[in-house]
Every structure is written in structure tokens, then in C-alpha cells.
Amino acid sequence: MAKRGASLRGRIAIVGIAELAEPAGARSPAGMMADAARLAIADAGVRKDQIDGLFATTPYYYAPTLTFAEYFGLAPRYTDSSVLGGCSFEAYVGHAAAAIETGLCDYALITYGSTQRSDGRALVSGSEWLEYERPYGMMHPISPIAMIAARHMHQYGSTSEQFAHAAVAAREWSRLNPRAPYRDRPLTIDDVLSSPLISTPVHKLDCCLVTDGAAALVITSAERARELPTVPAFVLGFGEASDHRNITGMTDLTVTRAVDSAQRAFEMSGLTPQDVDVAEVYDAFTMSLAVLLEDIGFCAKGDGGALLESGATRPGGSLPLNTNGGGLSFVHPGMLGAFLLTEAVQQLRGDAGARQVTGARTAVAHGMGFTLGGHATVVLGAAETL
């Protein structure tokens, strides 16, 4: 019997990408999304009127695909605005692949935009009362992450020093990225550990940046992709999984559904985590990154801190991770998932500049939603992997 989903391997490709990691200025979130979309469509070498699938979410709009279609002048025949938090965009790759494969659309646009830093507010809906958390002083999402970190440290002996290596590695990568902030400020373990405690044991520099930003991707069939001018990144596998919205619904604070989404994605791709040349894994916090590295399969459960401490994820290491600086040192406009995909594609195209990983042919992008509740994994490959 053929593996479930194996027929989709290599049949879909990302053909256009764009990202804006810059202040919004006078632009609205929709304006940021539109600018990114124009650039991605131009990068793909297609016309705007060829876009007939639209996948978008942003907390700024109640009906993001309708708002954006009106703003940008699109009339898509297929739309999806599923909200899975920061992993929505990896999930959209799978949703778009299914829609394209079944003829529901031909060219799908994924887009996201946020003016979070300019607005100076958190991107969490005020309509959701976290009844089992907020009355006890839980500060979303940092306090839930602190609970996860404390449990991991108790159960596996991981340390704040080990987690801090994630922030140091991210800063080293970001210093190779000409569009990253703080390029002139190296980061040390002592810097992280001496930064203010936000929610014990989470320090300020264990947390991601708060920025404005937008990103967009264009996806189509592999057959159409070969007729376009850009170098495509082929979707080899994808998977998604979720089980909770609030930290009080997490049955095991050290294990996430990334185990399931990654397993499905790698099974479809025919690869393993050890076959990956570049990894782009959601790094809202150093601690959550360690847990995700374990659950995706880059190391054994409990060894995420040791993996970070080993230096494997730094430039020149055996596991190039978050090669643009990630959410910790490049960009984090409320949701990071789309930027994980754009960086993975840049690496596979070979146009990542000073941060380029030599010979990168396979990449994984893993998104996380809310407090480690939603997960989606995408395995990408260059043409040679087909």
C-alpha cells in the first residue's frame, strides 16, 4: 500500500516569495500584506489576475481574506483564513497543495502583515477570556512558556544556560543578514542570563523581538512551476496537528503535537530529520525552541538544551538553524511562520548571501501556534531531490 499522501510529493512548488522586515510607517496591516504580495507575485513571474487562491490570516481583521481581497483587488475562487496561530502559514502550504491538486485553484497566494511594533500592543484577541489562567496572573504567552521551561528543567535537567545558547546562535546568524536589527551587537550567554526575568525562568533575551513586518508566497503545481522564470522550491511533505489553545489544556508540558506533524511531513517526503540541510523552526522563545527540536526529531526527548549548547545550530554547525536570525534576532511581527518559509526557499535557491548554507538541497520549516498548541511542518527540496 502506498504511503498516505505520498502522491503529493514533489507535485507542488513555491515559486514566489517576499518579506518585509521594516517599520510599517503609514501603512496598515493590509497595506503591508499588499506590498509583500506584489513583490512575491513579481518574483514568481505571474500576473495578479492569475492568483485564484488566497490564504491569509492576521488578528487585525475579522475576515482577513475578504478584507485583503478587497484591498488588493482580487477575486479568488478559493480562500482559507484558518487561524492556527504562527503555524497557520505552514498549514496553508498543505491546504494550498490540496486545493491545487484537486483543481480548486491554480495559483495560491499566502500572505500576512502586522504593524505590531508601531501599534505597541500584543496580538491576542481581547474577546477571549482565559478563564483558567488570567485570574491567576498568567501573562500570555510568556508565563505558559515559563511553565514549560520549568517542567523541562525539572524533568530533564536542562538549564537556563543551555537555553540561552539559542539566543546567542540566532544573533550570530542575524549578523550575517543585512536586514536584521542589532547587527552591531554580539550576544553572549551572560547577556541573556543577566537580562531581566520576565516570568521565571524566562529572561527578556529568551524572548523574540516585537516588530512590524509582512511576508507572502506564491504556490502552484510543479508542472506550472517549471514554466516560470524563478527557481522553485518543491514541497516534498507536509503535516499539521493540534490539541489545545490554552496552556491548561496541554496534557504534557514537555511534549507537543510537533511529533505528529513532523512525522507526517517526513513520511510523505521520504526523508528523515537527519537528511535536512537547513532547519527553520519557530523560535518565539529559547525554551520552546528546545522542545520543538526534540519533537521534530533532531535530538532525543530531553536533549534539546544539550543540542543548543553543542553549537550545532550556529553558523558552521551541523544543523544550520533559523539562518536569517529567526524570531529571536531578525523579525517577529506577531506571527513568524511565513518568514520561516521564505528563508527556507531563499536557502534552497542559493541566494541567501553571507548566511547561505553551502549545498543546501533540503529544508524544513516548522511553525508553532499559540502556547505550543498548533503545529505544522513543511519539508522542501530543490529540483535535485525529486
Automatic annotation (TrEMBL):
Taxonomic lineage of the native organism: Bacteria, Bacillati, Actinomycetota, Actinomycetes, Micrococcales
Domain Thiolase C-terminal: 239-381
SUPFAM superfamilies documented for this protein: Thiolase-like
Gene3D superfamilies: 3.40.47.10
Taxonomic source organism: Gryllotalpicola reticulitermitis
Protein name per the record: Acetyl-CoA acetyltransferase
Taxonomic superkingdom: Bacteria
